[in-house]
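Here is the promised in-class demo. Please do not try to memorize the tokens; focus on the logic of going from shape to residues.
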């Protein structure tokens, strides 16, 4: 998440500077970055849950003959999944903090004069 935030910030320096020149405050620009991080985190968690479930179903179906007796349903390690989700949220908060700190240090006037 930190890599996503810093690379996105580096790629869109001019866009963020233009937003500020058009009247957006640094708080508005930071809210834009926070929202983007939240959307990416939500999409990543949803995709990870779907792919993990599909992979588990496929492995159980492929290894059905190995189990004696075969399982009736999948076992879900809820505590581990909750810990991973919490780590992802903490990573997103860290990434947001890094990105907001970098936004405050951006030389916005010089960014617009570059091109």
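The designed amino acids, position by position:
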């Amino acid at each position: 998440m930190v890599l996503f935030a810093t690379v996105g910030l580096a790629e869109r320096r001019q866009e963020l500077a233009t937003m500020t020149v058009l009247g957006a405050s640094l708080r508005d620009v930071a809210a834009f970055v926070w929202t983007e991080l939240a959307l990416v985190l939500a999409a990543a968690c949803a995709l990870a849950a779907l792919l993990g479930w599909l992979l588990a179903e496929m492995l159980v179906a492929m290894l059905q003959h190995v189990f004696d007796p075969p399982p009736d349903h999948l076992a879900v390690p809820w505590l581990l999944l909750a810990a991973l989700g919490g780590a992802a949220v903490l990573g997103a908060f860290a990434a947001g903090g890094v990105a907001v700190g970098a936004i405050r240090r951006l030389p916005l006037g010089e960014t617009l004069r570059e091109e």
